[in-house]
Amino acid sequence: MAKSGTKAAVGRPESGGAQETRDALISGAIGALKEEGFAGASAREIARRAGCNQGLVFYHFGSVTNLLLAALDEVSAVRQVHYQALVDRARGLGELVDAAEEVFEEDLDAGHIAVLAEMIAGASATPGLAPEVAARIAPWRQFASDTLGGVLSETPLATIVEADVAAHAVVALYLGLEMLAHLDGDRTAAMALFARARQLAVLVQALSGSPEGEPGPEEKP
How many CB atoms neighbour CB 105 within 10 A? Predict the structure, then answer.
């Protein structure tokens, strides 16, 4: 038996109950960010939603900020799996635009963008939070770069548009569109942009010599 006051072993496996508590706290943090905003996502509010003592926030995560970052990680992980599945099914630039439009509306309907928007808002007043949030956006830029690189390589744009540069622009535009639509509750302007993007995709496909939905030269058997 360990002596009173000694520290617990580092890296010991957590019990099923501990993991359930962590999951409940993360879920509570996601809900609090969506509905109460960063300022309202306190230890008390999160614990209330999780159905546990607020002291467990600090026991499991060390701070409310760490818990909120874990909530952002959870939302990002789930969304990235879904995004990747849609991208893997897309054939051509037009279907990629369709996939982007689908996840855009899903994110707005489910409130996923609110989690990131609130974390970005909170970063301006919370020391050390900005680089943590930025680090979590970086993988999305890489994801966009990999996706666009594969699509643009079969079009005339490959020689004039760098995938990394295009990816930065796409991520910035996507986040901006979602945040504006979230703030004013109107996604009409954003949907109009997706419609124009789809028209542009048709034009690019025509210039590349591959009809929309058909494989490019490297994809053909």
Answer: 16
Residue type (1 letter), 157: L
Q: Give the predicted TM-score (pTM) of the model.
A: 0.78
Given the candidates 3.30.70, 1.20.1070, 1.10.357, 1.10.10, the CATH classification of the domain at 71-208 is 1.10.357
Chain-centre distance for alpha carbon 5: 41
Amino acid at 22: R
Neighbours of 180 (CB within 10 A): 13
For the beta carbon of residue 73, count every other beta carbon within 10 angstroms: 12
pLDDT in tens, 150-199: 777 767 666 777 888 888 988 888 888 888 887 778 889 999 999 998 88
User: How far apart are the C-alpha atoms of 125 and 98, rounded to whole Å?
Assistant: 37
**Residue boundaries of the structural domains of the chain:** 71-208
153 backbone dihedrals φ, ψ, rounded to 5°:
-60, -20
Neighbours of 177 (CB within 10 A): 20
Q: What does each C-alpha distance from 66 to 28, 33, 63, 140, 149 come to in angstroms?
A: 14, 13, 5, 20, 34
DSSP character at residue 217: T
